[in-house]
Amino acid sequence: MKLTEKEIEIVELLEKNARLPIDTMAKMVSLSVSEVEDIIKKLEEAKVIVQYATIVDWRKVDGHEGVTAMIDVKVTPKRGVGFDEVAERIYRFPEVKSVYLMSGAYDLSVVIEGRSMSEIAHFVSEKLSTLDSVISTTTHFILKKYKHDGTVFEQGDQDRRIVVAP
Amino acid sequence: MQKTKTYISDTVSRLKPSGIRRFFDLAASMEGVISLGVGEPDFITPWSVREACILSLEQGYTSYTANAGLWELRKEISDYVARRFHVLYDPADEIIVTVGASQALDVSLRAIVNPSDEVIVVEPSFVSYAPLVSLAGGVPIPIQTSGKHQFKLQPEQIEQVVTPKTKALIICSPNNPTGAVLNAKELMQIAHIVEKHDLLVISDEIYAELCYDEQYTSFPAIDRMRERTILINGFSKGFAMTGWRLGFIAAPRDFATAMLKIHQYTMMCAPTMAQYAAIEALQNGAADVEQMKKSYRQRRNFFVQSLNEIGLSCHMPGGAFYAFPSIQSTGMTSEQFAERLLLEEKVAVVPGHVFGGSGEGYIRCSYASSLEQLQEAIRRMKRFLERL
Fold first, then answer.
1. How much is the pTM?
2. Which of A27, A29, A166 is opposite residue B20, by nearest beta carbon?
3. What is the value of ipTM here, to two decimals?
4. Would the CB atoms of A166 and B302 count as touching at under 8 Å?
């Protein structure tokens, strides 16, 4: 799908801040509010905009700290469906946050979020490793998130400039 | 010891302190101020540029460079000016790396001005131009542009002030504080008058990378103007490198040779680590500049439209990151308006009169601030205006 420059600008603005008010966005890209609304609707329908997400630093919420793991999975592809079938079986689990087909030493990269390490261990040993096509798994626990999807978690964003300058 | 003489020079005694200073002191003493008074990007220098500086320190590049700057940097500057602005300068003897565009201006004026030579300054202008002309021993001659022409210099205005003593004209496009951009056609008309009266031009193009609506034209790129132009540019605004203090001059050989004499006796050379950073900025910084420019343009569109909506009439500035709205409808002077806005709503703007007489009735608002800050500033300004 070919987008116009204004459409790309709107997607970029929403990607940075999905809560940007439409009237503000309209002023920023020099379009009317209804034009912007129409563009967003069109992009949503075409699934260019797939979802509006919120990045949360759960470590700050008591009782919600959670654990994230990245799992390297080696699989045997099947004739006719390649890796798609096993990928689909994996991504249907609700605790699976993302699944990527990779080049290199392993085939699928799976990101899992759970309440504890034992919950993730249970998922890997009981659900993932037991799938027919799965040859092996290597689990890496994420110890700390510094940056996620382009957002830096802890950042002093105070303005260092003097208040008035030439 | 009893002092019996006046020790401070007459020239310096006569200089007025910058009008911005008073506002800085006032605003700095207050908490919770939203500042639209800053003349610099709100972006931090791109990481790859900072990283190049760190690497240069790790490698121990901490000694002087050539007076005119690192050869490699001068070559990059020469390529950059040719690529972006279509003017050729020899890196060997037509480019000087300076301590910011400010020093470049100082060196340029001192190299060309004889006592009592007149230099035309187009107002509203950057606060340093007229004082630097005076410090060089010259006489600044103001031309006042007006909101009626979006603060663009009208060529016939030059004819009105030119005298046999007129040596040069300083132009700044995009302009600080008005954001006005002179396009190719307008520059050609100015060039015609410049040639007719045999003037030099100091073209301050520090905001050239921040030009939003049309193709930027560099003054020396106009026919026959290279030979009578001193081009000033730098890394502060486009590359978000204000604190690095790194600018450059590109000028015909005889001018550059003269300026280099002053530069070598006063500055020796620009900071070495900043020069290494600048090489990285020119080699790999274009995408960062483009991103920053896009963000400024969006904020400009938002801010200027919002100013007009709350009743502060404002032309759409073509470049830089300043809006220059009129406050004449309030009946206040720009100083009164800025002071009351700061004290009552904690929004810092700069009164237009500090940029010269024709800036009276206007305020300079920098939109190089986060969108959230700009939205809040507009809310506060609206509340302020409704109370008047």
1. 0.91
2. A166
3. 0.84
4. no
